[in-house]
Amino acid sequence: MTDDDLLDAARKVRDQAHCPYSGFSVGAALIDENGNLHVGCNVENAAYSNVSCAEAGAISAMVSSGGTRIVTIAVAGGSKGEKSRACTPCGGCRQRIHEFSDAKTRVIVKDDDETWHSYTMAELLPSSFHL
Ligand code: THU
Fold first, then answer.
1. Is 99 a catalytic residue?
2. pLDDT in tens, the chain (131 residues)
3. Which of 55, 82, 114, 123 is flagged as catalytic?
4. What CATH number should be reported for the domain holding residue 99?
5. How many structural domains is the chain composed of?
6. pLDDT for the residue numbered 113
7. What pLDDT score was predicted for residue 62?
8. In the 3-class helix/strand/coil scheme, how is the chain assigned residue by residue?
9. pLDDT in the model for residue 56
10. Which ligand 1 atom is the nearest neighbour of the CA of 17?
11. 15 CA distance to ligand 1 centroid (A)?
């Protein structure tokens, strides 16, 4: 699966987002160490603090099927119904991704003008928390 295929998967699942409160839909698609694809979208709740981010959904699907490492994760987000824009993971999701990352893990997003950005977790979460 190419990076473009992975971003397409993130954009596709973004359409499933349940985001009536923020109006901001997010899709995440990841490839694990077994080459398997897992996707997730954000799921909001009337009790606002119960929001589940797209990345959390994709990671949960990966763990549920036995995956342990994220090779590449693509994230696409933006106002619902509008074109996706570069949507780097929020702070909490950076820590979530970090849990299942190694030095080679890539986080990829695309700008409005379709310019690629690829990050390592060391770039997104320097001096990260470890037990
Ligand atoms: N959101 C995600 O799904 N992932 C992120 O990394 C950033 C934020 C969601 C949460 C909420 O439903 C909406 O985007 C606006 O914050």
1. no
2. 999 999 999 999 999 999 999 999 999 999 999 999 999 999 999 999 999 999 999 999 999 999 999 999 999 999 999 999 889 999 999 999 999 999 999 999 998 888 999 999 999 999 999 89
3. 55
4. 3.40.140.10
5. 1
6. 87
7. 98
8. CCHHHHHHHHHHHHCCCECCCCCEEEEEEEEECCCCEEEEECECCCCHHHCECHHHHHHHHHHHCCCCCEEEEEEEEEECCCCCEECCCCHHHHHHHHHCCCCCCEEEEECCCCCEEEECHHHHCCCCCCC
9. 98
10. 12
11. 14
Residue 130 lies in a domain: no
The reply to whether 31 falls in a domain is yes
Range of the domain at 33: 3-124
Structural domain includes residue 131: no
CA nearest ligand 1 atom 13, residue: 24
How many Cα neighbours within 13 Å face the side chain of 8? 5
Pocket of ligand 1 (CB under 6 A): 19, 22, 24, 26, 42, 44, 51, 53-55, 89-90, 93
Closest ligand 1 atom, residue 41 Cα: 3
